[in-house]
Fold:
Amino acid sequence: MITLTINGKKVVVPVGATILEAALQNGIEIPNLCYDKRLSPYGACRLCVVEVEGQKKLLAACSTPVTEGMEVKTETPKLFKARQTVLELLLVHHPLDCPVCDKAGECKLQDLAFKYCSTKSRFKGEKKHELVDTGSPIVERNSNRCILCGKCVRVCGELQGVGAINLLGRGFASKISPAFEETLDCEFCGQCIDACPVGALGSKPYKYSSRAWFLEAHDNICPYCGVGCTVTYDIRDGKIIRAKGIEGKGINEGNLCVKGRFGFDFIYSKTRLKTPLIKEGDGFKSASWEEALNHIAKKLKAIKDANGADAIGAIGSPRCTVEDNFMLRKFMKDVIGSDNIDSSARFGYAKIQRAVEMSFGLESLPVDFNSPLGKEAILIIESDITSTHPVWGLNFLKAQRKGSFLITADTRETKLTRHSSQWLRLKPGTGTALLNGIIKIAFDEGLYDKEKASRISGLSFLSDGVKDYTSKKVSDITGISEDIFINTAKRFLKAGSRLISLTIGTSEDTKGLNTALAAANLLLLIGEGPASLQMPAEYCNTFGMWHQGLRQGRSGRDIISMLYGEDTVKALYIMGENPAVTFPDASTVDKALRGLDFLVVQDIMLTETAKLADVVLPAASWAEKDGTFICAEGIEQKVQKISQTEGEPVPDWQILRNLSRAMGFEVGAKDISALQDEINEIKTAERTAETIFNPVEYIPGEVPDADYPLTMITGNLMQHSGALSVMSRSLSHVLADAFLQISNADAEKYNVRDEGFVKVASRRGSVMVKARISDEVPQGSVFLPVHFPHAKINTLTHLSLNGEAPLSAVKIEAVK
Amino acid sequence: MEKFLLRNTENPNSADIEEYIKTGGYKNISKAFELQPSDIIEEVKKSGLRGRGGAGFPTFMKWSFASADKKFPKYLICNADEGEPGTFKDRPILEKNPHLLIEGMIISGYALKAEYGYIYLRGEYPYAYDVMNQAVRDAYDKGYLGDNILGKNIKFNLVVHLGAGAYICGEETALLDSLEGRRGLPRNKPPFPVNAGAWGMPTIVNNVETLANIPHIIEIGADAYSKIGFPDCPGPKLYCVSGHVEKPGVFELPMGISLREIIYDYAGGTKNGKKLKAVFPGGISAPVLPADSIDCAMDFVSLPKAGSMLGSAAVMVMDETVCMVKIAHRAMKFFERESCGKCTPCREGTEWLRKILERIENGRGRNEDISLLTDISNNIFGKSFCALGDGAAGVMKSILKHFRAEFEEHIKEKRCRFKQKD
Amino acid sequence: MLKEIEDIKAKYPDTRAALLPALYIAQKEFGWLSLDAMKAVANALNLPESDVRGTASFYSMFRLKPAGRNLIQLCTNISCMILGAERLRDLLKDRYGLLPGGTTEDGRFSLVIMECIGACGTAPAMLVNTDLYENLTEHNIAEILGKYK
Structure:
């Protein structure tokens, strides 16, 4: 620690802190325009200059490290004058169009000018008159207001790893722009908007919607992925009109992705359900809550009486709160008497959980978003973490920047592969073979922790299990050259600290249970613990839902048995899920749903699944209720009602409580806190099973053949991850429909034009989508995002039941 | 004085490697290789050598900081971005004595345990680029460069890297950014290049002339070297003289010779015997000295006392026909154009200085302009990110100080009397 | 061109460092740094296009618009200026219609005003393409330019 004096006050700060950090940590404000905690010091604006005893020059506080005994003054007449001149110079060319600038009222330049400047300017200069870039879907750039602090450029390049904009030109003529002064086209994370101290970068959906001083800010948890970012929502008249990250706040420390920042508006969609609906002929009629609940109660009772409780099943939702899912489970157990409960996690997170239990004997993995930092080698298996968990993905980029050797095994070119120290472009779904191959090298070269590994049962089975995975064979399976494979494997094995990360999401088809097991085998062999395997839960409350028990009960049926088996259930209660679109093998699901005697769907919109329902109940969205999300790290975070509701939606847990009452059961939960108390009383016992090696084979998914020659890869996009994002107007402005990504070589082979329509068929069905030609996918593979309801990509997919990746083989045909 | 830096340069074939070897070239490598690297650093310390790039920082200090850092590889960068207007002292070394520089770099690389060297050469020197590249190729062929120099298992690889026209890249950290393929913006210090320079590794950046002095120190020994010229910063020095003199050129003279001697004894005095008005003693960034201040010694210690600095020892001589407002305007145009644009005072301040000077020069000056020029200069000086802003402000202040009356006259008369009538 | 860029990469510990050399190569190949030239460089070095353009536009010797067949780089900094460089600049305008930053109508010459080309001792001076001409006068400049078609 270092002791120094700031304005006569003694402060103690860590070694390596800058003067500005020391001041901020001790509540001393030093004006600045180009400083950002997340970025390396820049020192450009020269507003944070301070006087240091014994130094002739003024020093920039943001980039001067503290030294023992330093005496710093942050407010002196000399500093006032220096800052005044800097501001005066900045204002010469600034348009001063504050009356029509969204930033007014929260503009740093405005605030500093107010503090330091006189009303008279000694310079009269021409204002800049660049064209405002209004062309991009959600970010607007007005470079006339730009003061060249460079924060947006650094946030975009250094932090986000994108580099969509840069400083062009030199000196006074510098400006910030995309490469060729074209309209901004990027991933639209909007981080630059939050970073901009003035009104040069703005949110288009927010434009002209309010003056800053009318806004009321409320923190809440983001409803999208498992990272669990804290988002600050600005509310006006009961409506969220803007979302922003606040420097240093939350797990995300103020970072947000495009979905978190712009995707909240799905709750104001015109298609929100306002009242309960009861099926009538081919359509629905509006009903009162009382009528709808009584109708459901009567029907469920009748089915239970006729077919037994086991004929009724329920599907919960990783996007609903812990309380909602708890109440659904309670309803099924206590009111219906059935253990048939499951969720979409069956296709994704369940595989991770299974692997964790089998390998480590643990209830859950110690997922830690800071885990990549400081690791010597990181291996990512077929996962685009910058899309599935975007803000977490930033830490992988940061680790690489700070010196970690980042190995990304992926078929597709992604942001991670672009920033990797080594990109292994393997064939889709062959990660298991790759991992087995590395295990074999570890055995052959003695590059494993003999002492630790010998204490784990199954070591000899593992060494037997991988003996066929010679480098030659791995190279044949994965398509990675033998040399590169061996060198990379050794680099990973020899590193001092290692980490493997992969995601298994509902919509991802390149990994299966075996992939996760193989990764666990490798890490256990080289002496690493469960913390070095980072497999995060998918959605905002996947972790909470799963660990609170919303999954197939001991005597119950899982989703596969309920929907895909010969003998499906008779009645299904679905909360916040859209199986018709998001579950694999959509035709089978569709048939099962249509075959039901009775289907209840409670959701915020009339989804494709809801359209098939007998009763549809309008639920409150995450911002319209109180509750709890548990993020992938296992941290409980409260969500709050911050937005007013139009119509009569009710929180999911309340609907279920009311329904229980309608069925004649008193289930307690008089209010949310009573419910939370009840949940807290239930303690899940930590399982303490053994650590075991589970040797696995690489099992190919559907192998392409002459009829279906291409491998289809499905997955997330940065802008879309499922049911919510496709309802967002802002996100749809960026991307509104599914597409087929195809390589130049295949496009030529199959006569596919960019933006032309293509029919894609698998053995299970076919869909029609637009093509996008890009060599981000290699020849032989195509990529399709599954989330869009119109495209119904899941018509093509299928289940995997043997631990393999559920890849599908497809054929394509250009539509004339 | 016997020439060392420019030895044999009157010979038209001086750049030829055979010619260089014939006149004793490359023999200092063998001599150096017999010493321990730390001994060479000690010799350089004893020699008193100071960096010839402009700041006059003791060379051994950079060297010992970099040596003390345990990270490898280390990089040795030759700053051949001779961009300071008025400066052309490194050019004769680069064009006529390239092997002296290479020899200096090999010895320095050995002393610093740096196995990779880069010569960052300004883009405006296409001829020097060809000469240097040829010289490097020849040195490789002769075994002076490579992985096993002179069979001694000593490694030094050298690449000539061409800049592309940016004055700021003469600043060592901006040079590193540029070498790494970025916009040449100066970096924050700390970390200093000696600890985290090129590609994050310990890096020594030395000027061409500095490195060209190294073989001489090895050749004659630190003791003899330290007796050349001014004791506080000894050694031979290249002075380049241009402007209104009879015989402009580069002169190798002992450090500390007076400005008057340089102008009158070596450069032949003012052109056509006109009256001397002012001198930039060390390039455009060194404050201007009026005619009555030329008796000062030209070294890193004496010039600051006289209100200027040695900089790149680029003496630009101006006679009585020159308008100092115009000089200030041209200088500011230069700084405005070459400001990298990173920090506010320099980016915006140089633009305003230039604009105000422009209106004064064109007879549209206002009474408050002089105080405005002073105020902006004071608020750039010591407040900008790097020395470029200081240079601009320092020059502005010096011209105002010594030639204030000329500014007042322009404003009052609403014209420039030096302008030729068309 | 791509081959040449590949060779350059080997000289540096990091591919980005090959950016300036690669831009020179592309400029030679395309005559100037057109959009296509810069995109090709971005691709060859796996850098964002904004990095390539941002860097290229920082340096005055990279040409971001088409240039004439011969590039005149005339120094007008102090030593050249006080020895008559401005008269030469005016002469180029009067005789060839050549303005700083501009190109003659016949595409024969482009003119760029330079900040010191290190020929102060032989001022005024200019570079025509990569050839240096010193001690220029209003008389010899015409003769020199006559050599360039």
In short: The mean pLDDT of chain A is 94. The two ends of chain A are 71 Å apart (CA to CA). Residues 277-347+541-681 of chain A form a domain with the Rossmann fold fold (CATH 3.40.50.740).
